[in-house]
Amino acid sequence: MSWQLLAKAAGHLAKKKIADKVTQGSGPRWWRVALIVAIATSPLAVVTAVVLLGAVAFGAGAPVAAASGAVGIPPVLFSAYLTAEANARMIAPDCVVDWPIVAGIWKVESNHAITGGRTITPDGNVTPPIYGPTLDGSTPGTAVIPDSDNGMLDGDTTWDRAVGPAQFLPGSWRAYGQDANRDGVADPQNVHDAALGTVAHLCLTAPGDYTNPIDLAAALRRYNNSETYVTTVAGWIDYYRSFTLTNGSVTADGLYAFPLPHDTVTLDQIRASHHDYPASDLAVTEGTPVYAVHPGTVSNVYEPCPTCTCGWGVTITGLDNHRYTYCHGTQLAVEAGTEVAAGQLVMLAGATGNAQGPHLHFQIRNPTGTLVCPQTLLEAWWTGIGLSPVTAPTDGCTH
After folding, report:
1. Tens of pLDDT along 171-203?
2. Which range marks the domain in which residue 364 is found?
3. pLDDT at position 336
4. Of 19, 95, 194, 268, which is least packed with CB atoms within 10 Å of its CB?
5. Which CATH number is 358's domain given?
6. DSSP class of residue 310?
7. Is residue 389 part of a domain?
8. How many distinct structural domains can be found in the chain?
9. DSSP H helical ranges for the chain
10. CB 249 within 8 A of CB 67
11. How far apart are CA 243 and CA 265, in angstroms?
């Protein structure tokens, strides 16, 4: 089930585990199929010599930086994704790869190149470099692949290791690696080179329109014949495709679900202000399901106590870096650290804490910790519009 379906399923108790599967090389590798062993001697190695004359490049300027912040991807990496999309047809004329495909793959492979606390330099180099496990058969689920590059890429002269944020094997990098930043070196640890290399791997293995979900699923299975892997990557691709980009800026990012069953509240309730600070109180019957409005991780769980106003409740840190708090529940359905999808059940509404009757108290804090006005957002989500809180006002919504 895609994240988009989950987002539309307010009332459907769906749960999908989305986890970073890479911590310096652990987890499934989409480059680790038997085909890769043969690639080491493939004539496709000439791809590394491709010169992208007239290639479109996106600098990490203000619009891209703002967009990357909304999407939750480092600016230099987001720029690399956009550039890779723009150059897909230069790799193969009949190939269509949009940036969410690269983003979805890299989210699973290396958490956008920042797995293990890594950083990305302004020119796109991952620090420290990313290396996968030694492919000597000692790690369950990994292939046995003797050294094929004399340790030049992976530092191992006995066995191969996957390298870089896209986790290429040395043989596949020789076949598909790119010098996207034109510095004379095709470097799998550089996000510009590796992002375009990801596109090359897709387009030169089997050119197609990878915005077509059938073609995309087939391509992902060629990389890693695991339904869990395909479903996870496809879910992230759906998530990134929910963002709308206009002239390099995010104008909307979807996958926002209304936090309650649609028919339990009215627009008048949603538009009303109940506090002297930005927040919303939505009166419902006890036991009404409460859903996560945005994908993210449960960062706090609250329990009733004599001085605790929230009662049973949770705060979810969203993928958009906003914090969503739900209070006055009667029963929780998640724990701290739980990763949730938009539309997933997080608790049942109640009247615990400082509450006069059962209701949902809902509030949103932006990345600076400031409360934002939720009424317009709730109205948009109630009507099925994926309105982002990125530009939501912080005042003027109380009376």
Report:
1. 999 999 999 999 999 999 999 999 999 999 998
2. 262-382
3. 96
4. 268
5. 2.70.70.10
6. S
7. no
8. 2
9. 3-8, 35-39, 62-71, 75-86, 88-91, 99-110, 170-176, 191-205, 213-223, 227-241, 267-271, 375-382
10. yes
11. 27
